[in-house]
Amino acid sequence: MKKLSQLTDFYYETLYPSLKELEKQRTQLKHRLIVLGIIYTTVFIFLYFVLAPAVSSSWDLLSVLVFIYLTIGAIGYKYLIKDYASEFKIKIIAPLIDAIDKNLSYTPTTHVPEHLFRKSELFTSSIDRLSGNDYVRGKIDDVNIQFSDIHAQQRVRNSKGKDEWKTLFEGLFIVAEFNKNFYGKTVVLPDMAQNRFGNLLGSWLQSNNFTRDTLVKMDNNAFEKEFVVYGSDQIEARYILSHSLMKRLLVFKNKAKKPVYISFIGNHIHIAIDYSKDLFEPSVFHSLLEYKVAMDYVETLHLSLGVVEELKLNQKLWKNHKKNTKLE
Amino acid sequence: MSTPLIVLIVVVLVLVWMYNSLVSKKNQVTNIFASVDTLLKKRYNLIPNLVASVSKYMEHEKSLLQEVTKLRSDANRAHISDEQKIALDAKVSSALGSIMIAVENYPELKANENVMHLQHSLNEIEEQISAARRAYNQAVTDYNNAIEMIPTNFMASAMNYKPKEVFEIQESERKNVNVKELFS
After folding, report:
1. Which residues on A lie below 8 Å from B117 (Cβ)?
2. Which CATH number do you get for residue B18?
3. How much is the ipTM here?
4. Which among A180, A217, A243 is the nearest to B138, CB-wise?
5. Residue of A234, A236, A243 with shortest CB distance to B174
6. pTM of the model
7. Pairwise CB contact (< 8 Å): B176 & A234
8. pLDDT, tens digit (0-9, with 9 covering 90-100), for A91-129
9. How many CB pairs under 8 A join A and B?
10. Number of domains chain B contains
């Protein structure tokens, strides 16, 4: 696989003509958005002052208007940037993925199948709505891998008795074949309890988590500090999480700089990185040529497809090649 | 309800909890050791096949092969204690490691499909044993902590629970397995 620096070069050199063209579109779009935004806002302020004398509670009016303002605004914004966004994905993201590996396919509008996300058991709350985009799948070093943006939500009832959508997870979801055969389930989650409540109370809370299998205490202090492991089989969890894999997962987590959820189920590794935002979306208010903006795209792609190399999933020493299960 | 009665109920509940927690920790150790034992047996069963495949070529390592055969028969004796099994496992691991290194000196052996297959099986089982040892060590640590820490230590001494030994994890196991070397 190409190095990060090679990909950055590719972005700035090969993609430069497309970037310049898109930049033109982007500046025009930005101006249009600002002008429309100002008009739109003025209309609402005007509406408020017109309607305010007619209603008894100006607070109620304000909250209703703000709600309508944000909803229509968000829909309008999405509509206005639609063409630019799809062009950006075709001209920038697709070639970048192609540059990483020719065998990868990219569909901007779909996501990793919902059943795979549910099968990963990374989130135990009920998932009532799932959406996503930027679906990449293919083989890297003979290892099946796929990933996409995922937004999983749960329907909850708020204190006023109204239904609300609560985000369970928003970020990158990666599924890849694992290089060892196993039968049980092992789940590795960010260690929140021990960080929040300290070692003693934290580990007591962890060992009494009824939504999970039994707690597996790992013999790597740095890993234990970052993660908590639950597994259906104490030995198998350690067979999967060898000392070297624990070290590699730590390196991976540090590279991602975000909370990382990992599970090993059905001979596959599932990784969810909580970015709390939709990735691979074009920047509208910052130049696409800005280093930080560019690195956001390049780094995220490199990180997700680099999983195979980073975690050495391509070293199938112990696995019977004939038994390889195919990703559905 | 009178206060002494409540205190008595609480004391009994705490005692029951301590007793149950100690028993469950002891059982966890026993259960995991049973798995370790199964895996060790699986590895011992590979030894005769390995010795048979390599002995034709390995003239200089005869003593090593004899040693590993002897260790296997020791391990197969009936009624050996867990401590003895742990000690034997360490010796077998190091003897098998030496044989595998010696194989590198014999090109005919390295190319032999049977030996290659055995090598893979041994590596696989070695990984599983390593995982089982780590699981066992964790279970023993939890158990030892419980019988040495207040307040469960009083209950443990009344139940005559003794600290148990852990497997020593060899430094080589902490290193990454170099696949290239194994295949070359």
Report:
1. none
2. 1.20.1440.20
3. 0.79
4. A217
5. A243
6. 0.83
7. no
8. 888 998 888 888 899 999 999 999 999 999 999 888 999
9. 46
10. 1
